[in-house]
Design goal:
There is one protein chain. This protein has 119 residues and is α+β, with helices and mostly antiparallel strands. It has one domain: GMP Synthetase, Chain A, domain 3. Helices cover 56% and strands 18% of the residues. The chain is built from four helices and three strands; from the N terminus they run ααββαβα. Strands 1-2-3 form a three-stranded mixed β-sheet, covered by helices on one side. A hairpin with a 4-residue loop joins strand 1 and strand 2. The longest helix is centred in the first third of the chain and has 21 residues.
């Protein structure tokens, strides 16, 4: 019985080490899940997601919906039914996925130029 508890304790320590893995490694793993499992489903509706950032300490990933998914009213459904389950299944370090709905600075500048342009 003692050996079992020692093994469990060692495994728990190893899990803690992988849970606080570097953000770069975690980002790559999340991107792989997005590319392999999530985007093929979203592309059926001419949309996709991209990873914005990963916060290992908060166990959170932030994604941005693109294509036809950007601004779609069903984005919350896609997040809860497709994105979150897939990421949680393959990457146990991530427990929360948030949507970044901010406007890209380059797009914002283009829009400002269009509306402030005088003939």
């Amino acid at each position: 019985m003692l050996i079992f508890w020692i093994l469990v304790d060692v495994m728990s320590e190893n899990e803690k080490k992988t849970d606080v893995a570097g953000a770069d490694d975690l980002s790559k793993r999340v991107e792989e899940v997005i590319d392999k499992y999530i985007n093929p489903q979203l592309l059926e509706h001419k949309g996709w997601i991209e990873l914005v950032d990963v916060f290992p300490e908060e166990r959170t990933a932030t994604v941005r919906f693109r294509g036809e998914c950007s601004g779609c009213m069903k984005v919350d459904d896609d997040l809860e039914q497709i994105v979150v389950p897939q990421i949680r299944h393959y990457i146990r370090e991530i427990r929360h996925v948030e949507i970044d709905d901010s406007i890209d600075p380059g797009v914002w500048e283009q829009a400002k130029n269009l509306f402030t342009h005088k003939d």
